[in-house]
């Protein structure tokens, strides 16, 4: 009888030992957000950032009898856009009206097919640094002694790829022969259109 009780006691102790060794297998996995969880969030954020910074481009081509041309980039800047790039073939040491126009059509020899200034809110023409003014009104562009202009202009009144009434995607960007006086209606007495290009999605 004692022999039987001793065997039972040994068996009971062995069972307890197996349970103690098995306990680590039930340890909870690392908290969420550590290890691989961090890695999986990196790629989508990078892709979203790249998509948000995608911009548009404008190839300015000369109208009939003119030589002004250039390549410009347009990127979102806050609630507006930034226009940057270089325009060449201009009159040296000159100043030129520079506006977004309502139609994305530069097909006419004089670019009149681009229509009037882009003006989705129905304002009078004016200085873009004051009110009122068209959404498409911008500061004049100035050329150097070689007839080259470095363009760097912020326009807070238009947007890019928003689908809003002030979206400039598909609109024209026009350079004029004379400086905008910011007061003559409806276009600032800036003269002929010497270059025209359409805002299009940048492909590279």
How would you characterize this protein structure?
The chain is of the alpha+beta class. It has two domains: 2-50, no CATH class; 55-201, Superoxide dismutase, copper/zinc binding domain (Immunoglobulin-like, Sandwich). It is 19% helix and 26% strand. It has helices spanning 2-22, 36-52, and strands at 56-62, 69-77, 80-88, 95-96, 98-101, 141-142, 149-155, 172-176, 193-198, 200-201. Strands 1, 2, 3, 5, 7, 8, 9 and 10 form an eight-stranded antiparallel beta sheet that branches. Strand 1 and strand 2 form a beta hairpin. Residues 1-53 have low confidence and may be disordered.
Please name the fourth-level CATH homologous superfamily of the largest domain.
Superoxide dismutase, copper/zinc binding domain
Helix content: 10-25%
Radius of gyration: 33 Å
* Uncertain spans: 1-53
User: How large is the share of residues in beta strands?
Assistant: 25-35%
Assembly type of the chains comes to: single chain
Order of helices and strands: HHEEEEEEEEEE
> What CATH architecture of the largest domain do you see?
Sandwich
Helix/strand class: alpha+beta
> What's the average pLDDT?
80
By DSSP (H or I, 4+ residues per run), the number of helices equals 2
CATH class of the largest domain: Mainly Beta
How would a crystallographer describe the biggest sheet?
8 strands, antiparallel
Q: What overall geometry do the principal axes of the alpha carbons give?
A: globular
Instruction: Briefly note the CATH topology name of the largest domain.
Output: Immunoglobulin-like
Q: Based on DSSP secondary structure assignment, what is the total number of beta strands?
A: 10
- The end-to-end span amounts to 90 Å
Our count of domains comes out at 2
């Amino acid at each position: 009888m004692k022999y039987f009780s001793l065997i039972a006691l040994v068996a009971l102790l062995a069972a307890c030992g197996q349970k103690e060794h098995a306990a680590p297998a039930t340890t909870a996995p690392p908290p969420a957000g550590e290890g691989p969880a961090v890695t999986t969030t990196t790629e989508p954020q990078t892709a979203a950032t790249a998509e948000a910074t995608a911009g548009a481009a404008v190839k300015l081509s000369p109208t009939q009898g003119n030589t002004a041309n250039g390549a410009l980039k347009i990127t979102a800047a806050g609630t507006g856009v930034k226009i940057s790039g270089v325009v060449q073939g201009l009159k040296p040491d000159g100043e030129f009206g520079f506006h977004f126009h309502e139609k994305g059509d530069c097909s006419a020899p004089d670019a009149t097919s681009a229509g009037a200034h882009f003006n989705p809110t129905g304002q009078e023409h004016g200085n873009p640094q004051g009110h009122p003014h068209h959404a498409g009104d911008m500061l004049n562009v100035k050329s150097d002694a070689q007839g080259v202009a470095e363009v760097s202009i912020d326009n807070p009144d238009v947007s890019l790829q928003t689908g809003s009434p002030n979206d400039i995607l598909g609109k024209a960007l026009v350079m004029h022969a004379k400086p905008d006086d910011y007061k003559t209606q409806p276009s600032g007495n800036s003269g002929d259109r010497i270059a025209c290009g359409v805002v299009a999605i940048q492909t590279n």
